Every structure is written in structure tokens, then in C-alpha cells.
């Protein structure tokens, strides 16, 4: 949900119909655990830097910023993505997209001039009255000078029969995928279950509040259409989104229309800041959202468990990583004190190879003294939920602590049969001898939407 200004502009020349011919079935081998993701769509966008590229290449999945014609340091994004994937052919790379905000002035509108022109001419902004002038357009809830786009199927159709969300989807495919066809798919920000602002979503002169079920149905229909059409226009590619709000207060489940809609998504700041679900609904609430989204998305379930914090708070990081390891998602750490979404934080634990889970499904109950455990072929992960107090647990065997440099009081390479976990803590331990299990499938592929 963090925005950064776009700086360049290039008119898209690609045609949607031609893209289907260059799309091939996507195949990749699910990585061992822990699975590491990167949310790198923040400034300064210096993706051309060899040092930055080397950090990006270590991840299993990464989201990068893009705008028409973007060329960091004069290097095209197509070339940058090729370099990353050449170093790590199994890495999945996604481009950032956003259909709920647009601009009429400044760098953002220049970079996306074709989009701005269409939004203005078709009057596809969200309006506060039936007078569809820019003076009645609803400002974006970000407060950054942008306007809210009515990204629903209830907007006027253009000469080609496209409403706003159809046109926006095709524009992104033409302009982004058309210029960087070797990406693995799109990341759509802000896949909300309810609007953040009031407006005339159905273009009938009625202003609906965000809490109105009709307003919620309108934007949900828009996002459902985005994923349906982007899958169709980008066969063989994955489509993921920002699903951080898929557990609103009082919301019992993921909306029915969102079930099976996407191939994965970002649980942005699920832990680490005051508004994180872990802060206001506890560990069980956080895990409920995590598990619910994992169940709602399609295979290969590219769900990103994103934690905010300081990269020197190793206990909190271990707590988040171990929580992520209780299911099959990808862990992402955002260091707000050192670059945020424009930098990569790396920890000793990322270098561990836990292998694959030994059980067919994630754990559904605490293992010992309120502590949760998941076993892998090469080690185990333990997490002590917030509010459980410090606990000492017997491991039922001999395990080895990681050997690292960041927190030597914990990652000291010692052999242990028990460990003490503080409240809101976690740990990875390795086996002395790996468990021999049948190998996981060597590749996952899709042939289209």
C-alpha cells in the first residue's frame, strides 16, 4: 500500500492480441523452506545496481515497481528481470499494478499519460455527485494528490465496449507485460473487500458509504474481473494481489467471489506495527487470516507473510518467520528503518534449508505448553505465541541450533534437547540427520486462466 512517484513515460505500442503468442506455460520448482519473498516496489528503484540485483536474486519471489518506459540507470526492466532470472531461474518476479488511484497532474500523470487521458475522457473517476466533473472527483484516501478510480464494472463503456476495469486490465497488459514479457505475472495492490472512501460507485447519483454492502459488492466485482481478465490475457502467468484487508473487523470469511480468484497474495504488515492484525487480534487472529487466505487462493498458493520491524530485532523476526513456517507461505521482512520496500533485509535463518514438511498438512493445534511446532525433513520450527509467557520445551530428541553472526546468543551452533522460548518468540533447529522423504514434485505449471 506504499506509493512512490512514477518518473518516466513511454506510449504503449503492444497489442493485447499479440501477447498470447509470446506467453508460455509457467513452470517452477517450489523452493524448500523457509521460502523467502521480497516486496521491493519502493524507491529508489535502482534495480540496475549489481549489488541490489545480487540481493534480489537470493529470494524465491519478488515484487518490483514498474511504470511505462522505466529504465533504471538506462537499463530496461526486461534486461533487469532477465539478469535476475538468469542468476536464479526458479525465482518468480512480479510487476506492481494499482487500479484504484490515478493522477491528473505531476510526475504520476506524465508517466501514465494514456491512462490519465482515458480516465478523464470516459469520466471513470469516482464522483461525489451525479455531476461528473473533476471538481466532484473523490480524492484518493492516500492523501497524495491522486483521485480515486471507479474500478468497477458499473462505469460507462467506451467505443470498444470496455468499462473502466476492462480497459485498465488491457492497458496494464499492453504497457507492462508488453514491455517486460519475461515476468511471471502481476501484483495488484489494494484488493480491498470494502472501499476506503464514499462515492457514486454505480453511477446512479447515489453516494454509498464504505460500510454499505452495495459499495463492497461493487469493488469486489471489479477485482474479480481484473483477475479473470488478466489470467485470460496472460496465459501461463500467475496473478497475485495485496490481501492485507481480507480480515476486516467483524468479517467472518474471505468473500465468496474472492475464493479461487488469485494465485497468491501479500499479507502486508500482518505483524510488526500498531495496525497489524497480530497487534489487535493476537497471534490466533493473525494465523486465522493467514490460513484463510492460503485456503482461498489457487495452487501454487504464492502467499507472502510480510512483517514490518527493525532488522536488528532478531527475536521479533524469528517469531514472525516461525509463525509463517506453520503454513506454506513465503516470508518477507520489511525494515522500516533501513529502506523499507527499497531494500532487502537478510537473516541467518534465511540460509537454513529445512527441506520439506514431514506431515501432509500444517499443524492445527499447539504441540507443547502452548508452543507450536512444525517438522521438516532437515529440521523443525517452533513458535511461542504472544501472551503465552516464557516456555521451556523438551524436543524429544537432539537438535542443532543454527550457526550465525547476527544473534550468537541464540544461533550459536549448540546441540540441544530442550529450548526456552520467550513470549512472542520462535526458533529454527536443524536435525543431526535428515529424514528421508519422497521428493516433492520437481515443477509446478499452469497453462493459463
List the SSEs and their pairings.
Blueprint: H1 16-19, E1 26-28, E2 35-40, H2 50-56, E3 61-64, H3 77-87, E4 92-97, E5 101-102, H4 106-111, H5 113-122, E6 147-148, H6 164-177, E7 185-188, H7 213-233, E8 238-242, E9 264-271, H8 277-296, E10 302-309, H9 314-324, E11 330-335, E12 372-375, E13 379-384, E14 391-401, E15 415-421, E16 425-431, E17 444-446
Parallel strand pairs: 2-3, 2-11, 3-4, 4-7, 7-8, 8-9, 9-10, 10-11
Antiparallel strand pairs: 1-17, 5-6, 12-13, 13-16, 14-15, 14-16
Helix pairs in contact: 6-7
Description:
The radius of gyration is 22 Å and the shape is globular. With 449 residues, the chain is α/β, with parallel strands linked by helices. The protein has a single domain (16-358), classed as TIM Barrel. The strands form four sheets. Strands 2-3-4-7-8-9-10-11 form an eight-stranded parallel barrel, surrounded by four helices. A five-stranded antiparallel β-sheet has the order 12-13-16-14-15. Strands 1-17 form a two-stranded antiparallel sheet. α9 (314-324) links the parallel β10 and β11. The longest helix has 21 residues, at 213-233. The two termini are 26 Å apart. The chain is built from nine helices and 17 strands.
- Beta-strand residue fraction: 15-25%
- Count the beta strands: 17
Question: Which superfamily, in CATH terms, is the homologous superfamily?
Answer: Aldolase class I
Tally of discrete structural domains: 1
Give the overall shape, derived from the CA principal axes: globular
Structural class by sheet pairing and helices:
alpha/beta
Number of helices: 9
CATH architecture grouping: Alpha-Beta Barrel
Task: Write out the strand line-up for the largest beta sheet, numbering strands in chain order.
Answer: 2-3-4-7-8-9-10-11
The average pLDDT score comes to 91
- C-alpha Rg, in Å? 22 Å
| H/E element order | HEEHEHEEHHEHEHEEHEHEEEEEEE
CATH class category? Alpha Beta
Helix content: 10-25%
How far is the N terminus from the C terminus? 26 Å
Q: Look up the CATH topology.
A: TIM Barrel
Low-confidence stretches at least 5 residues in length (pLDDT < 50)?
A: 2-25
Main β-sheet description: 8 strands, parallel, barrel
Amino acid at each position: 500500500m506504499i506509493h512512490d512517484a512514477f518518473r518516466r513515460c513511454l506510449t504503449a505500442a503492444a497489442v493485447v492480441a499479440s501477447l498470447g503468442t509470446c506467453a508460455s506455460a509457467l513452470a517452477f520448482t517450489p523452493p524448500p523452506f523457509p521460502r523467502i519473498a521480497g516486496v521491493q516496489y519502493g524507491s529508489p528503484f535502482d534495480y540496475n545496481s549489481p549489488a541490489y540485483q545480487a540481493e534480489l536474486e537470493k529470494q524465491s519471489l519478488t515484487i518490483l515497481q514498474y511504470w511505462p518506459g522505466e529504465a533504471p540507470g538506462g537499463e530496461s526492466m526486461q534486461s533487469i528481470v532477465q539478469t535476475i532470472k538468469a542468476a536464479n531461474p526458479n525465482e518468480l518476479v512480479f510487476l506492481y499494478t494499482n487500479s484504484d488511484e490515478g493522477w491528473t497532474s505531476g510526475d504520476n500523470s506524465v508517466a501514465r499519460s494514456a491512462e490519465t487521458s482515458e480516465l478523464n475522457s470516459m469520466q471513470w473517476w469516482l464522483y461525489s455527485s451525479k455531476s461528473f466533473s473533476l471538481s466532484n472527483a473523490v480524492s484518493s484516501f492516500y492523501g497524495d494528490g491522486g483521485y480515486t478510480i471507479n474500478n468497477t464494472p458499473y462505469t460507462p463503456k467506451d467505443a470498444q465496449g470496455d468499462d473502466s476495469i476492462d480497459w485498465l486490465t488491457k492497458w496494464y497488459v499492453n504497457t507492462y507485460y508488453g514491455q517486460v514479457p519475461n515476468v511471471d505475472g502481476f501484483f495488484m495492490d489494494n484488493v480491498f473487500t470494502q472501499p476506503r472512501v464514499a462515492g457514486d460507485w454505480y453511477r446512479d447519483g447515489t453516494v454509498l458509504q464504505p460500510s454499505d454492502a452495495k459499495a463492497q459488492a461493487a469493488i469486489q466485482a471489479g477485482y474479480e474481473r481484473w483477475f479473470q481478465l488478466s489470467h485470460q490475457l496472460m496465459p501461463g502467468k500467475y496473478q497475485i494481489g495485496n490481501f492485507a484487508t481480507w480480515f476486516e473487523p467483524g468479517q467472518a470469511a474471505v468473500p465468496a467471489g474472492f475464493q479461487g480468484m488469485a494465485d497468491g497474495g501479500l499479507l502486508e504488515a500482518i505483524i510488526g506495527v500498531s495496525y497489524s492484525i497480530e497487534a489487535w487480534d493476537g497471534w490466533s487472529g493473525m494465523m486465522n487470516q493467514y490460513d484463510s487466505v492460503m485456503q482461498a487462493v489457487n495452487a501454487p498458493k504464492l502467499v507472502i507473510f510480510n512483517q514490518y520491524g527493525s532488522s536488528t530485532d532478531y527475536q521479533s523476526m524469528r517469531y514472525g518467520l516461525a509463525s509463517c513456517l506453520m503454513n506454506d507461505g513465503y516470508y518477507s521482512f520489511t525494515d522500516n528503518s533501513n529502506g523499507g520496500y527499497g531494500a532487502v533485509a537478510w537473516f541467518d535463518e534465511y540460509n537454513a534449508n529445512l527441506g520439506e514438511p514431514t506431515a501432509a498438512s500444517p499443524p492445527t493445534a499447539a504441540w507443547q505448553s502452548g508452543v507450536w511446532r512444525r517438522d521438516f525433513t532437515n529440521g523443525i520450527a517452533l513458535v511461542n505465541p504472544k501472551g503465552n509467557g516464557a516456555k521451556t520445551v523438551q524436543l524429544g530428541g537432539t537438535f542443532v541450533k543454527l550457526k550465525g553472526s547476527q544473534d550468537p546468543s541464540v544461533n550459536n551452533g549448540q546441540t540441544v534437547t530442550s529450548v526456552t522460548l520467550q513470549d512472542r518468540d520462535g526458533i529454527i533447529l536443524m536435525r543431526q540427520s535428515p529424514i528421508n522423504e519422497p521428493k516433492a514434485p520437481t515443477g509446478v505449471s499452469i497453462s493459463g486462466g
